[in-house]
Design a protein that fits this description.
Elements: E1 4-7, E2 10-13, E3 18-24, E4 34-39, E5 46-51, E6 58-60, E7 68-73, E8 78-83, E9 92-98, E10 113-114, E11 118-123
Parallel strand pairs: 2-11
Antiparallel strand pairs: 1-3, 3-8, 4-5, 4-9, 5-6, 7-8, 9-10, 9-11
Length: about 120
Amino acid sequence: QVQLVESGGGLAQAGGSLRLSCAASGRTFSRSGMGWFRQAPGKEREIVARINWSGSSTVYADSVKGRFTISRDNAKNTLYLQMNSLKPEDTAVYYCAASSGPVGSSSVRGYDYWGQGTQVTVSS
């Protein structure tokens, strides 16, 4: 069993930055592919970024490329999402997710464990 707790969300102005963290419990974190997803009101949950077990491979949604950075610290069992140059369309609830496998997926179906989500609101 893996428990995930996100933090770091809040209100930011357009052009600003936020850093999300996801603290994971359990001994499998260092072997799990991880992902950040987001869900805006009335929309489906979508991939933001994913990272493999070692951090050597990352994938980003086109909408965040060059602005967001996903990273992990396996010694601290923590996943991060650095968000720069924020835009109002980044407003959503952000979720971290853990896969049972080492790579992760760009699909919600590729993840077995989810955090409770953290709200990010970007004002124009």
